[in-house]
Please model this.
Amino acid sequence: MKFFPARKLFSIFSNDMAIDLGTANTVVYARNKGILLNEPSVVAVKANTDIVLAAGKSAKEMLGKTPENIVACRPMRDGVIANFKLTESMLRHFIRLVHNDRRTLVRPRMIIGVPSGITQVEKRAVEDSAKQAGAREVYTIMEPMAAAIGAGLPVQDPCGNMIVDIGGGTTEVAVISLKSVVFCRSVRVGGDEMDRAIVNYVKRKYNLLIGERTAERVKMEIGAAIIDSESSNQSVDVKGRDLVSGVPKTIKLTSSEVNEALLEIIASIMEGVQSALENTPPELSSDLVDKGITMAGGGSLLRGLDTLISKETGLPVTLAKDPLFCVVNGAGKVLEELDFFKDALL
Model:
């Protein structure tokens, strides 16, 4: 009979996971299997209970459309846990989906990406939530570090690697060398703040109230950081409730107007990038002249944002391959090579 050390048995029977617990989406990577789940970070529960009725895409469809006895919400805000119980319920639901509703012999180890600006209290909330949801051990890694590893940057080398990770709730700008963050700036603006900016712009200019899901669709269809001759003629029909008459109404919104709505958010992201560059040691700054800046996260897909950052900084800007999955792929790589990347963990 062949015997395995206890540690080896854990790896055989447990389904160790890397999780990008994002404000907008939760992505789960299982060891040796890759990404198994990508769902919106939304949960729907019975009012005044912890009974989960839906989570992920089906729960997102309910946002703003639920009766009084059902509550559909995002338990994550600005990259951190806003509602502990709902986050725990959502995580447990997603873990069960990954395991195909089967109970495993051993509780899994988890590596979870967290914002660089997270407090010790917020970090403990993430760890406790994961343990309550079924984790045996919980490790945390800074999202910009995970994004840099997932984007394929040589973070272990003695050279400057700059990553701009624009998520749903936060924008993380970091300079990394020797598996450590040399400088990091966390700005609490991201894709969600862009959506809210569009909602407020339409409300202010047209007296029309639209939902954040509608604003997200507008951003994805005609949103742009720079308006050129090609995008200036784009427009989309937007439906909402007229605040004066109280009846449903449709308006036409142009890409120039969406750009105007997003200017303040884009300026905050640019400020974070400039701050990181100003605080980077000169030897690492010289590396950035050649290597440039790598962008990751869903917010980096905003049309023209990479061009704008390159224009403002004078550095080459590259959009990472699969920017939406850089954090979870990086955390997954750390999970696969835990001993090598242990210095990169928080």
